[in-house]
Amino acid sequence: MSAAELPRPDPPSSATASATDVERWLAELGIAPPPRIERDRVVAWDLELDGRRRFGIPVTLILDPSLGLIVWVHFAPPIGDSFRVSYRKLLRWNDEFPFVKFAIAPDERPILTAEIPIARLELDELGLALARVLATCDRLLEASAAWLWYDGRVPPAAGRTSRQAALLERYADRLGELIEP
């Protein structure tokens, strides 16, 4: 096949999403949009969401209308154990969970992110990204318990139910191995 016969990538999309769009989509997903924070055309929202097993997950949405949206999960407090062990764990998870990425913030806090390019940013992509990070937090609950709780034990749910159960159910068929049997 010659270079002329190779498929060409689609030209960059002129699609854009506004803060108003994101807030409307959050409401459609059953999440009351909190007040937005704006600086230099970038907009952010701080949410507190629930997985099925892990509750009160701090999530920040960051929208740059020229690039896309980042779902930023404050996965755990700063790491206090052997950094090498934790770093290996995060690298392994990056390999095992291809649609999300783990990293270490400057304050040594593990973070979990999912990115949506602006050309694909719409209701279902936002919903799927949120469901994916929540399901990832659930899936890794025991593996991250030592980072999350002083005694390293997952506290009992004590009858709590997820505020995002409908969101997780809506995208369950697209979450694959993240949904525990």
Question: How would you describe this protein?
Answer:
The chain is an alpha+beta fold. The chain has one domain: Yope Regulator, Chain: A (2-Layer Sandwich). It is built from five helices and six strands. It has helices spanning 19-28, 83-96, 123-139, 141-148, 165-170, and strands spanning 37-39, 42-49, 57-64, 68-74, 101-104, 110-117. Strands 1-2-3-4-6-5 form a six-stranded antiparallel sheet. A hairpin with a 3-residue loop joins strand 3 (57-64) and strand 4. It is globular.
Short description:
Helix content is 30%, strand content 21%. It is α+β, with helices and mostly antiparallel strands. It has one domain: Yope Regulator, Chain: A, CATH 3.30.1460.
Level-2 CATH architecture: 2-Layer Sandwich
Apparent shape: globular
For this structure, what is the CATH class?
Answer: Alpha Beta
The major beta sheet can be summarized as: 6 strands, antiparallel
Mean pLDDT: 88
**N/C terminus separation:** 45 Å
Share of residues in strands: 15-25%
Radius of gyration: 18 Å
Query: How many structural domains in the coordinates?
Result: 1
Helix content: 25-40%
Using the coordinates shown, work out and report the CATH topology: Yope Regulator, Chain: A
Low-confidence stretches: 6-13
Structural class category: alpha+beta
Number of strands: 6
Order of helices and strands: HEEEEHEEHHH
Strand order, main sheet: write it out: 1-2-3-4-6-5
Q: How many helix segments?
A: 5
